[in-house]
UniProtKB/TrEMBL annotation:
Pfam families to which the protein is assigned, alphabetical: Beta-barrel_RND, BSH_RND, HH_MFP_RND, RND-MFP_C
Domain Multidrug resistance protein MdtA-like alpha-helical hairpin residue range list: 98-165
Location(s), subcellular: Cell envelope
GO cellular component, one term: cell envelope
Name under which the protein is recorded: Efflux RND transporter periplasmic adaptor subunit
Organism encoding this protein: Flavobacterium alvei
Domain Multidrug resistance protein MdtA-like C-terminal permuted SH3, first and last residues per copy: 296-354
Family listed: Belongs to the membrane fusion protein (MFP) (TC 8.A.1) family.
NCBIfam families per the UniProt record, alphabetical: RND_mfp
């Protein structure tokens, strides 16, 4: 009898212990960072690829032919206006000067002789001691000598100018580049014969292009009476090739007179201060120009948006700390956020993501986290 009662009791205890092991523990709600949709005025920038130029980029070209005799500067250094850069062998041109001086001396002597002859014949012609023909011939010889003097002086001046071209000086104060020639190289005048380039780096010019369609849109918007884009050309930003932001703000200087028919784009130029000489001619940069201003736009963090097959969604915090998945229509990017065109309203709170465990209808512990576009999130507060 005891054994008959003992076995059912033991079996009952075993079943109860098994049921306790199979019961799943209750899941705690996830603690999720939540932020409120930001409403603010947004200035949307478009980025364009640009190239830098010096305030003045002046090529140094020879104006006479000859052998380079000396280089009188340090490559990559700052040179001053009027500083001697190159000398070309002056001997052939100095010889031309001497020849021109000799020719001038000859015609000066001839002038003195013809003037003396004419001065002597003039009174004799009045007394009919010499014929009028002789007087006229003497006068013509004198006038020819005067003309020869002018020609000889011009030849001498030209020879001296050519001799002066043997000394090549800097036309501006600026930074000089690497020399294209060395001592002993033969150079000659011409557009293709460049010795060096001097750049004024006080301000740097940046050229970039806009498509014709975008130019037309911005132009029409700027010319509206209540346009928010007026003065956009006075605040242009620059991003360097390493992704860093250039600290100085530039201004648009001008736009080209025409649309390039081969590219369908128009060229703009902006000027940037360059106090530290960080910008150099030839750099490729990203130019940021405000091309749209939206009043009272709704902005959310990009990391809060879930994109699947072209559908964009966010988790919106509802009653009882439940989150519901909401389809949205994002607009353009703004810093590290999106401008939202549809799907959200002012005051909505959204989950900032960061976990794949979040599901539609999940109950969470919201951790309110202030967020502003382009700023690191501040410490969370419950």
């Amino acid at each position: 009898m005891k054994q008959a009662y003992f076995l059912p009791a033991l079996l009952s205890v075993f079943i109860m212990s098994s049921c306790k092991k199979e019961a799943a523990p209750e899941m705690k709600p996830l603690e999720i960072a939540v932020t409120q949709v930001v409403e603010q005025d947004v200035r949307l920038e478009s980025e364009y690829t640009g190239q830098t130029f010096g305030q003045s980029d002046i090529q140094i070209n020879p104006r006479v032919d000859g052998l380079i005799e000396s280089l009188n500067f340090k490559e990559g250094s700052v040179v001053t206006k009027g500083q001697l850069l190159y000398t070309i062998d002056p001997l052939p041109f100095r010889e031309k000067v001497h020849q021109a001086e000799g020719a001038l001396a000859e015609v000066e002597a001839k002038l003195a002789r013809t003037k003396s002859d004419y001065d002597m014949m003039a009174p004799l012609a009045k007394m009919n001691a010499v014929s009028q023909r002789e007087l006229i011939a003497a006068k013509e010889a004198y006038n020819a000598s005067i003309a020869s003097i002018k020609a000889s002086k011009a030849n001498l001046e030209a020879a001296r100018i050519q001799l002066g071209y043997c000394r090549i000086v800097s036309p501006i104060t600026g930074m000089i580049g690497i020399s294209k020639v060395r001592v002993g190289d033969y150079v000659r005048p011409g557009a293709g014969s460049v010795l060096n380039t001097v750049s004024d780096l006080g301000d740097v010019r940046v050229r970039f292009t806009l498509s014709e369609q975008e130019f037309l849109r911005i132009y029409r918007e700027i010319n509206k009476p209540d346009s928010n884009l007026k003065g956009i050309g006075q605040s242009v930003t620059l991003k360097l090739s390493d992704g860093s932001q250039y600290p100085q703000i530039g201004k648009v200087s001008f736009a080209d007179r025409q649309i390039d028919p081969t590219t369908g784009a128009i060229t703009f130029e902006a000027a940037f201060p360059n106090p530290d000489k960080l910008l150099r001619p030839g750099q490729y940069v990203k130019v940021g120009v405000v091309t749209d201003v939206r009043k009272d736009a709704l902005v959310i963090p990009q990391r809060a948006v879930i994109e699947m097959q072209g559908i964009y969604q966010v988790y919106v915090l509802g009653d009882s700390s439940k989150v519901q998945m909401q389809i949205i229509k994002p607009g353009p990017s703004y810093k590290d956020g999106y401008v939202i065109e549809d799907g959200l309203k002012t005051g909505d709170k959204i989950a900032m993501g960061g976990t794949s465990l979040l599901k539609n209808g999940s109950v969470i512990v919201p951790k309110i986290t202030p967020w502003q576009p382009g700023q690191v999130a501040t410490s969370a507060t419950k």
